[in-house]
């Protein structure tokens, strides 16, 4: 089975549309979204509509949880809170109800894949994994993880190779899963990349060949940013799209 996995769309329909167009060349059987469909961008309903239509399962992200009233976000900085408040008001009732029902984790047991937004250790805390020490915590739940755990949240592309007593960070490039190892892979962000590459990030996994691949695609950044500039959203949410940070 060939899976298309993406995350952190963040209300950027221009990026999401480009990713879906690029996926047409990948022979994908099923799509999965790892969360944060909303937040930051100018098209929350359009993105929710497209992800709902496309993904077999969408995982709850922290921005989704905030907009849906499933977490306290009072400690977020003001511009982020403002965006979440605006999206909560803008979302259609079906899209808001959808966010309220999203799971924290989903396991594709037949292909040994675990899906979550942040660390699988404390799901409701939405903790980051962008360094080996953070990935090492997952050794405590080794038996409860699939051969590959796919996450978002950090907006970075990262690969961590786990054995029962060690963790090694690998280059964020295409790889084949090795028997006896488990992997935690951060798939990057569709709509708000933060690795100084402004192209939308998306990934694929072939469960038969055990091959994982990172992909990037250019999109209409000017159009996405213009929606932010014309709104009451923080203008920096648009400016940073151009530099991917």
**What's the average pLDDT?**
97
Please give the domain count: 1
For the biggest β-sheet, the strand order reads 3-2-1-11-12-9
Largest sheet, if any? 6 strands, mixed
Count of individual helical segments? 8
Give a count of the beta strands, DSSP E runs of length 2 or more: 12
Our estimate of the beta-strand percent is 15-25%
For this structure, the CATH topology is Purple Acid Phosphatase, chain A, domain 2
Radius of gyration: 17 Å
CATH architectural label: 4-Layer Sandwich
**CATH homologous superfamily designation:** Metallo-dependent phosphatases
Helix content: 25-40%
**CATH top level assignment:** Alpha Beta
Structural category is: alpha/beta
Terminal CA distance reads: 33 Å
Ranges with pLDDT <50 over ≥5 residues?
none
Shape estimate: globular
| Helix-strand string | EHEHEHHHEEHEEEEEEEHH
Would you give an account of this structure?
- With 245 residues, this protein is α/β, with parallel strands linked by helices.
- It has one domain (2-239): Purple Acid Phosphatase, chain A, domain 2 (4-Layer Sandwich), CATH 3.60.21.10.
- The chain contains eight helices and twelve strands.
- The strands form two sheets. The protein has a six-stranded mixed beta sheet.
- It is globular.
- It starts with a strand and ends in a 6-residue tail after the last helix.
- The model has no long low-confidence stretch (mean pLDDT 97).
Task: Name some characteristics of this structure.
245 residues; alpha/beta; Purple Acid Phosphatase, chain A, domain 2; six-stranded mixed β-sheet
